[in-house]
Design goal:
The structure is a single chain. By secondary structure, the chain is an alpha/beta fold. 48% of the residues lie in helices and 17% in strands. It starts with a strand and ends with a helix. The model has no long low-confidence stretch (mean pLDDT 95).
Length: 216
């Protein structure tokens, strides 16, 4: 198994790019740590009950909890795929846990894609984000609008704003990214794995092609 980490602040477009990459190549699989957690919260599993408060405050859930969920996810996918990690790792401790998971699965970390977007743009991007609560499709009121405003193109369900996309929680999530996740940039740069991608100011298709080029 090849592992590719998508790294970047909330709102940088990791989820959008992961979705497009998976759709473009059948050997790609994506796992979003945020989606795994939101699903666990919805189903009220023990992990979900524990994670709920952290997520509402825009804080990170405990490292061991999310590392276990990623480990479990990896057990269920083919060993010859390329796994795109969206949102994990988010701390240096998680990166060290991932190293162990990689060894245990005889996997290889092939690249870490850092999607760079200025903070001012992130806040606007998050404000326009909408999602389908039924099928999980993601939209943005300006850059990826649904055909009918507020309605999912795929399943016709009314779109919602994520609970943690409110301005107060977003401020906290960006601060958490700076203090706890940004150290990963130096961590992976030191290993020669970091690839920087400008994820703003150019069309979404060009961002996608630039990432594909880096991975080819
Ligand atoms: P996301 O959908 O990636 O923006 O994640 C939403 C929320 O889930 C974050 O604000 C955290 O509370 C939690 N979360 C997601 N991934 C992680 C992770 N790798 N470590 C800790 N908490 C996480």
């Amino acid at each position: 198994m090849q592992i590719v980490i998508l790294l970047g602040a909330p709102g940088c477009g990791k989820g959008t790019m992961a979705g497009r990459l998976s759709a473009s190549n059948t050997s790609f699989r994506t796992v979003s740590s945020g989606d795994l957690l939101r699903d666990a919260v919805k189903r009220q599993t023990p992990s979900g009950v524990l994670a709920d408060g952290f997520m509402k405050r825009g804080e990170l859930v405990p490292d061991a909890l999310i590392a276990q969920m990623i480990t479990d996810y990896m057990l269920g996918i083919p060993s010859d795929c390329t796994l795109l990690l969206d949102g994990f790792p988010r701390t240096v401790v998680q990166a060290e846990m991932l190293d162990k998971i990689i060894v245990a699965n005889r996997a290889t970390l092939s690249a870490v894609i850092l999607m760079e977007v200025p903070d001012s743009i992130l806040i606007d991007r998050i404000a326009g984000r909408r999602g389908c609560p039924k099928c999980g499709a993601g939209y943005h009121v300006l850059s990826i609008p649904s055909k009918i405003a507020g309605i999912c193109d795929i399943c016709g369900t009314a779109l919602v704003i994520r609970k943690d996309d409110n301005p107060e929680t977003v401020k906290n999530r960006l601060a958490v990214y700076q203090s706890q996740t940004m150290p990963l940039i130096a961590f992976y740069e030191g290993r020669g794995l970091l690839k920087r991608i400008a994820a703003h100011g150019i069309p979404i298709n060009d961002i996608f092609e630039n990432i594909r080029h880096v991975l080819s």
